[in-house]
Amino acid sequence: MAMGYSMSIAISMSMTMFKNLFLLLLLLLLLLLLLLLLLIFAIAIDIDLVFLSQPEFLKPLIQRFQLFGRCIDSSNLEVL
């Protein structure tokens, strides 16, 4: 009887350990996604800064293909 009780404690402890490990892995995944998001925004800001220094004839083309920032619909394309 004591053997069955100790087995249930061991199973319970291992399930708690797996739950903690799962939560830790989930937290690490969220941190990696946040880091990736920050990296994407940093690249987008860097692209904007690089594109601002380009010659005037490239600026309309660059503005059409920006990844982040203003949303350009088809009615505004002739203005650019």
Descriptive terms for the model:
mainly alpha; rod-shaped; 80 residues
What does this structure look like?
The chain is mainly alpha-helical and 80 residues long. It has one domain (2-76). It has two helices and no strands. It has helices at 2-52, 59-64. The longest helix has 51 residues, at 2-52. The protein is rod-shaped and about 75 Å long. The model has no long low-confidence stretch (mean pLDDT 71).
Total number of β-strand segments?
0
* Distance between the first and last residues' Cα: 82 Å
Regions with pLDDT < 50 over 5+ consecutive residues? Answer: none
Amount of beta strand:
under 5%
**What is the mean predicted local confidence, pLDDT?**
71
* Range of helix content: over 70%
- How large is the count of helical segments? 2
The H/E string reads HH
Quickly count the domains.
Answer: 1
Major β-sheet annotation: none
Quickly give the structural class: mainly alpha
The shape is rod-shaped
- Rg, rounded, reads 26 Å
Tell me briefly what this model is.
Helix content is 71%, strand content 0%.
Question: Helices, strands, pairings?
Answer:
Elements: H1 2-52, H2 59-64
